[in-house]
Amino acid sequence: MAKFKTWTARQEDLKGDWYVVDATGIPVGRLASNVAKLLKGKHKPTYTPHLNTGDHVIVLNAARAVVTGSKASDKQYTRYTGYPSGLRTRTYSEQSQRDATFAIKNAVRGMLQGNTLGAAMLARLRVYAGGEHSHQAQGPKAITFNQKGDMQVG
């Protein structure tokens, strides 16, 4: 009988690719779930839950991402200053006027695990409000979305 060993990825064996995503006209939640999948590395056959097997993701045109329904006026982002009566809230439209990249970063962060591994995955995310980025040297591959919202490389 042959003995088979289960292969497990090691950190030194992993190499992260670079992907660029255009957020124009894509709903924020759908975009965030696909970006989180790329950051986690779940699209790779070498996915290992306890290692950072994910890739680097560049999101362009974050200001042109859309929200469906009445989320622009109903969705609220809440933070607390640490002082009495320090609860502050902003709607999606107010927050996107201040920082167009916040909604995508916040949505992706909510879809990653809440420990140091999730923070390392989030560090591989770069979000830009416009269409320009400074990562041409890495040779990022373009990600497009079809009508159903599924991502396609190329």
From TrEMBL:
GO molecular function: mRNA binding; structural constituent of ribosome
The UniProt record lists the keyword Ribosomal protein: yes
InterPro entries: Ribosomal_uL13 (IPR005822), Ribosomal_uL13_bac-type (IPR005823), Ribosomal_uL13_sf (IPR036899)
GO cellular component: cytosolic large ribosomal subunit
Keywords, sorted A to Z: Ribonucleoprotein, Ribosomal protein
Top-level taxon of origin: Bacteria
Coiled coil feature spans: none
Alphabetized Gene3D superfamilies for the sequence: Ribosomal protein L13 (3.90.1180.10)
Record-level GO BP terms: negative regulation of translation; translation
Complexes and interactors: Part of the 50S ribosomal subunit.
Stated role: This protein is one of the early assembly proteins of the 50S ribosomal subunit, although it is not seen to bind rRNA by itself. It is important during the early stages of 50S assembly.
Similarity comment: family membership: Belongs to the universal ribosomal protein uL13 family.
The protein's name: Large ribosomal subunit protein uL13
Natural source organism: Candidatus Dormiibacter inghamiae
Upper classification of the organism: Bacteria, Bacillati, Candidatus Dormiibacterota, Candidatus Dormibacteria, Candidatus Dormibacterales
